[in-house]
Amino acid sequence: MEESNIREIAFFGRITAGVTHELKNVLAIIGESSGLMEDLIQISKESSFPHAERMHRAIETIREQIQRGVEITTRLNRFAHDPDHAVRSIGLNETLENLAALTNRFARLKNVALAVQKSEEAITIESRPVMLQMVLFICIEYGLDILTAGGRIDIQPAVEDGNSRIRFRFTDTAAEPAAMTAAAPGEEKWTMLAPLLFELGATAERDHAPGSMVLHLPRTIPSRGAVEENR
């Protein structure tokens, strides 16, 4: 990745991270205000506060949405800090869970379920956080391209023979594997993966029969010199 691109990504990440902190402050103020409203309603019970029950339900909804907003901004803040380091140690369970939560809206729009089955043991690799998540997102988009409404994408990291891998299983309606053919819409996404995988020293394979894709990730990203030699 060119130095100018790295600086641009870092810039967007820094601004986004700062904004998420401001949004958390906004949510905190809303939470405090809703708490004050509830206290006032409670105090006013003796004077038969009009529509008190409806107000309580509204305040409860506000609290639920505040909690949802805090979770989203926390995840976005974590994502925005990824460009802070070009290469760093990455926990696959945490990264997959965070990315799936941030991209779940795309799946909901297509009525496709998106789920991560975390491994029992922690899996850590050294890689490029931004580029790795680009690869993971393209894999998710691949599934969204080939699945119909009611389909499902299951993502599961694991360690096999000392190496890390991530399996994406695409299940279409009627619990059948999704069709993965050369003419499928997902081919464009598959082509997009090649240069990114090369940079990461990773590989990918598709198993057409059960409708799945597997990423094989090295423990440590290859040096820039090694990447250039293999071009």
Gist?
With 231 residues, the protein is of the alpha+beta class. The chain has six helices and eight strands, in the order ααβαββαβββαββα. Helices cover 55% and strands 19% of the residues.
Question: Which terms summarize this structure?
Answer:
two-stranded antiparallel sheet; 8 strands; 231 residues; Heat Shock Protein 90; alpha+beta
CATH homologous superfamily classification of the largest domain:
Histidine kinase-like ATPase, C-terminal domain
Q: Give the C-alpha Rg.
A: 22 Å
Query: What is the annotated CATH architecture of the largest domain?
Result: 2-Layer Sandwich
Which descriptor suits the 3D outline? globular
Number of domains: 2
How many β-strand stretches?
Answer: 8
